[in-house]
Amino acid sequence: MRRIYFDHNSTTPLDPRALEAMTPYLLEFYGNASSVHSVGQSARAGLERSREQMAGLLNCRPDELYFTSGATESDNTVVKGVADALAHKGKHIVTSKIEHHAILEPCEHLSRHGYDITYLGVDRLGYVNPEELRGAIRDDTILVSIMQANNEVGTIQDTKKLGRIAHDKNVLFHADSVQALGKIPVDIKDLGVDFLSGSAHKFYGPKGCGFLFAKTGARFTPFAHGGAHERNKRAGTENVAGVVGMAKALELAVTELGKNQTHISTLAKQLFDGLLQAVPDSHFQGDPEYRIVNTLFFTFPGAEGEATILSMDMKGIAVSSGSACTSGAVEPSHVLLAMGVRPEEAQTAVRFSLGKGNTNDDIDYTLEVLPPIIERLRMMSPIYAQSK
User: Fold this and answer.
1) Is 354 left (phi over 0), alpha (psi -120 to 50) or beta?
2) Number of continuous H segments (helices) and E segments (strands) in the chain
3) What is the average pLDDT value for the chain, to the nearest integer?
4) pLDDT band at 322 (very low <50, low <70, confident <90, very high)
């Protein structure tokens, strides 16, 4: 059976060129980068070269990059670390209702320990209103965290503007840029943020490796303790091979961005137009024009989302209902609910997130397979049948 992968926002396959870059640090330069002997220093050299390489690609200083196990750790480090470091100034944090759970759950944790969290709403396309952010910032606000590109609907926020509003009030700003990296240009200096999170496996790098940008002077308490690694900001033996692979994957993502996004954009438009034409009563969620182009989030009223996903998987097509981190949850997408989609319709959501390896044949096959699946599921839904 053929296999088609349309879940690249959950994870991407490892680029063979990134694997090639990693291999020497798995087999030859395998030392602990904190060891003073030559084996360890060979690993240290690879680690620091990767830090410099990524800093050049992201337009920041090498000593502003900290390597982590992934964006979940980076996000937690920012939210909890700033809360701890600046508790003397205030205990108020502003975020949005459509953030990844790696932001929402640390915020919920803090709310149980004396912190006040403001969750900004979004409009029907998933945008945060800058003026609502301005009005939400108080004298005791210590952090604003708004994701740059949404992982479910692909909405791209005006990060520069939102960051300026925070800075006008002398408040630190964090951008979760996990879904932006490799899909749109990310220039940290131009964005003007204080913190930025990224994860290698979202741009064809290895799993278990990510980074946190922290601007010089931006205070945060380390998330983990137990060693002086990463300039005393992230304890634990560095994943040298993973970092080398992440740096190579980021280099490829940046240098091949135009080519990849042109290819993906063409395929996404074919799928977008094809679904609207082939599946009656299908609804696109989000901004159809300005978004990360690989992401298409549809609702198909009358066809329960999980049933659609399982039916497509039986045909060899991998899609999702949103964030992989909420897989198995029976609740509808919190992103769609925040955008004003009715819960019963949000339960019918299916996300297609395309990648550079997808082809025209993948689109054609999907448009052949999906319409009868939706029709069959709708016939099984007495509520949908009665509504028609």
Assistant:
1) beta
2) 15, 12
3) 95
4) low
Question: Coil, strand, or helix at residue 212?
Answer: strand
Using CA atoms, how far residue 187 sits from 160, 161, 180, 193, in Å, is 11, 14, 11, 10
Q: What is the pTM of this model?
A: 0.95
Asked if 174 and 195 count as a contact pair (C-beta separation under 8 A), the reply is yes
CB 298 within 8 A of CB 349: yes
Catalytic residues: 325
Helix (H, G, I), strand (E, B) or coil at 261: helix
Q: Alpha-carbon distance 29 to 46, whole Å?
A: 9
Alpha carbons 231 and 224: distance in angstroms, whole number: 13
Give yes or no for a contact between 73 and 211, defined as CB atoms under 8 angstroms apart: no
Q: Which residues share a beta bridge with 299?
A: 283, 349
Sign, CA dihedral 202-203-205-209, equals: negative
209: left (phi over 0), alpha (psi -120 to 50) or beta: beta
Residue 324 identity: A
What size, in residues, is the chain? 388
Query: Right CATH number for 16-255 from 3.10.300.10, 3.40.50.300, 3.30.2290.10, 3.40.640.10?
Result: 3.40.640.10
DSSP letters, 270-322, are HHHHHHHHHSTT-EE-S-SSSB-TTEEEEE-TTS-HHHHHHHHHHTTEE-BSS
Tens-place pLDDT, residues 272-287: 999 999 999 999 999 9
What is the rounded distance in angstroms from the CA atom of residue 310 to the CA atom of residue 93? 39
The CATH homologous superfamily of the domain defined by 4-12+257-387: Aspartate Aminotransferase, domain 1 (3.90.1150.10)
Q: Which residues does residue 181 pair with via DSSP β-bridges, in sequence order?
A: 184
Q: Any idea where the domains of the chain sit in the sequence?
A: 4-12+257-387, 16-255
CB 239 within 8 A of CB 279: no
d(CA 309, CA 315): 10
Question: Rounded CA gap, 220 and 341, in Å?
Answer: 37
Bridge partners of residue 65, in order along the sequence: 213
The pair of three-digit structure tokens given for residue 66, joined into one six-digit string: 């900290």
| Percent of the chain topping pLDDT 90 | 88
Round to whole Å and give the CA distance between 309 and 311: 5
